[in-house]
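May I ask for an example protein's residues together with how it folds?

___
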Amino acid sequence: MDRRFARLRSRMEELKDLSGVIGLLTWDQETYMPEKAHDARGQQLSTLQGLYHERLVDPRVGELLAEAQAMPDLTDDERAMLRVFRQERDRAVKVPPELVRALAEAQAAGVAAWREAREARTFARFRPALKRLLELRREQADALGHGGERYDALLDYYEPGMTVARLRPTLEGLRDRLIPMVQSLTRPERSGGPDVVAGKTFDGDKQWAFTLLLLGDMGFDLEAGRQDRSIHPFTGGSHPRDVRLTTRVDPQNPLGTIFSTIHEGGHGLFEQGFSPEHFRTPLAAAPSMGLHESQSRLWENVIGRSRPFWEHYFPILVQHFPAELGGVTLDVFLQTVNRVTRSVNRVESDEVTYNLHIALRFELELLLIHDELPLDELPAAWNDRTEKFLGVRPRDDLEGVLQDIHWAWGELGYFPTYTLGNLYAAQIFEAMKRDLPDLDDTLRAGRLTVVRDWLREKIHRQGYRYPAEELVTKVTGRGLGDEAFITYLKGKYAP
């Protein structure tokens, strides 16, 4: 390796290590950190993110990048590394270091305020923190540059290359197709029988044991990762050999626990699946959060809610809960698992209504970033859209505007990636079925590592070699669209 490229790669590795430490501190913030440590953690994260920013925008790094890009004998992977690293650096040099530190402190304060607001079930406790985060995100968007659409600058961080001009018609078109589908599927005559978990209590330790069994069968390496508990499930960690999953355990709703674990397990498999030669480089990353979400949503819904999957795992679940589920048939259980309901809660919503929750958040985020919606009116605007799209209304702020942690982190622009993930997941599943014609029998046998291995070859090991949509096109034969997703829903729910 050329010595100049070696020096540049050394800086990439150093930054990846710093990023890992930041990720570990953030994970700890949501799991084990003492309540009184919030201020200290905010200062620590501010310092580390400031150091990361300084090391990234160092003028010498720009010189090394220019020299490396002129080298004629770089490998394809090395050129991909340069492309991704330059993208990150080009964004970073536009943002002042003091803004980076201010955002880190505001995020720590936002998470603490969000928790307090949830306890009090009132948005008023969170409003000042959100106001500060919005001010900083607008400032960041303006520093990055956006051609007149602030949201594009923030969206690009999670979904590089995506714009409001392309995203809005995609989400609005999907919304308009889903609303009548929900109206049809939630008619009383299509209720699908009793909810087999309602009114029962499911031991938390037994739920936990079942989720660990699922993670092991999925191929998640529990010697290179772990699962813990948090208010809002997420995936974090510091390295492909240190991946941290979280879930939440609800004694009244074991399905929420199970599907949260499967969802985060999909994220975790992606993180563990990068090529070892890419570790500590920019290629050990997903090219977009939409593609990352495609993995979690594919596992959670397309695989995890399918009949073949539960033909294997329902008897095992009954072994864990014989008194609660012993008299339940597989057909009735599957009706509960796949019931379409008008719910106020995004995380626990079904496949059909889920993207309506995302459309709601996307519309509100645009208004917030454009400073067109006073924060005092945000809870009512949330509730009005919930009623308009889903036909139900939150009873209070905890059921409404406070249910997600994303805004407490200042993650404006993230929510749309969930819908993009659903669309990508349906396309990827079509390709998987073509390559694995006996997939249903494989799932009935509980051989989930067959799915993991296919995804590892096609998606995970590619890392950030290609932009997200280019990789999806290579795997599926077409770019982003909702045709595969709508076909999937109709095939599953029309009967």
Observations:
- Residues 3-145 form one domain.
- The chain has a mean pLDDT of 95.
- Residues 128 and 306 are 43 Å apart (CA to CA).
- Residues 3-31 form the longest helix (29 residues).
